[in-house]
Amino acid sequence: MAHSFILIKKFLEEPYSNILGYPKATKSQIKSRINELEKLKIKSISLTGPTTLGNLAILGKGYVGVVVIA
Asked: Where are the domains of the chain?
């Protein structure tokens, strides 16, 4: 399984914002989540896995969240 790492700043833009905003979030909520990731020293997220959200590969998704590699 190949890993495609995307810088977290890109997650302000679609289609990546759909991952941080799953199932639905405002632009300010997504910005807040990116700030929290930066505080945790997370710089990128890997888009890989057997499940898709739109056309993006992820490890899994549930009712209110998604699973990715950071």
From this structure: 5-67
